[in-house]
């Protein structure tokens, strides 16, 4: 039956299209978990889950997993054909862990170097020479480019984010926690390792932990962070002058010391007197801001957040550590946890402050829990907020200027949705 005096469905569709086009970006629903081959399907793929991370100024840790006892050796070379004259072999060690009934493969860990900056190295791991990988070492001076993505998971949206990260070059990826969303299903750590391998084997991935890494079950599996610490070992003990006591917090320099990155542990003790708190004071006290114009910190649960999700969860840590970061004139604090994007102005103690860090929530990598779309009234210190999937880029141009860009996953297209030039606090005499 038709009702010719009523506007047609096409009219409604057009009206809706126009209204939607004029309004804010319409957020897509969460996507399914990807069918990345799970452990059983990928048996025989060896080595697998290859990823790399920085160690000191000229080393690289190569991590991979095998289901056999093949040797923990890496052959690496600046020649893609591994010409003998150019090739070196490094040896490390391997370990495994048990989680209730699950037993991991052999997790191999080899540090190679010294390596030259801005150089492509080819490498192969263990006893399978047919899987060849390559990475580019980061530059030893500015400019320097970070990709930043939190709360990744392994859904169709994660895939979209990873494609966008890979589409533009970068030097190091920073991940403020919540990697695999395995949530005690250990084979999901394996599938995550395979999903990220194309990226994480070719550029250093530097991560810190989120709540989804804890995987503690009272009585049955009381020890936290077992899979995370086994699979994603970071260089917490790389600097003998300032070692951290734990894989859950550490720091490192890039660009010849022009940028100092501090990875904090939102789920490690952080109160005054804790080893993390003491270590942070020590780490910050060693900074020479003439040599290191940029300091960036990462946490998981945000200290500033106007989303309805996870309100107050970072508050205890903020009270414990904000004065330390402020006193050291940390430039930017990245957080995850809230599945959305939000950028604040420079803040300290809940107020706009020209010498405080810019706080950025970048927990929108693509995990299966979906987006956090409900917001509280917008506080004055919140500059830009949007519940969409995406990733960020921090391009440090020189000692004074860095460009921050948030790329939204706009129906599988990376679209620049927020962009701002930041100036280093070291270059602001009013903050000395
Ligand atoms: C990820 O996305 C790319 C491009 O859209 C597609 O070709 C690929 O199959 C996806 N990967 C998975 C595991 O779904
Ligand atoms: C921060 O300030 C806002 C008002 O702008 C207030 O609603 C909020 O409770 C304050 N948070 C803390 C931790 O003091
Ligand atoms: C630093 O980079 C900014 C942005 O590209 C530029 O405007 C500025 O002139 C540069 N400063 C120096 C000292 O090169
Ligand atoms: Fe989280």
TrEMBL record:
GO terms for molecular function: acid phosphatase activity; metal ion binding. Residues 47-137 form the Purple acid phosphatase N-terminal domain. Residues 1-23 form the signal peptide. It comes from the Eukaryota. Residues 144-341 form the Calcineurin-like phosphoesterase domain. The keyword Ribosomal protein does not apply. It is an enzyme of class 3 (hydrolase). PANTHER family: ACID PHOSPHATASE RELATED (PTHR22953), PURPLE ACID PHOSPHATASE (PTHR22953:SF153). Belongs to the metallophosphoesterase superfamily. Purple acid phosphatase family. This is Purple acid phosphatase. The lineage of its organism: Eukaryota, Viridiplantae, Streptophyta, Embryophyta, Tracheophyta.
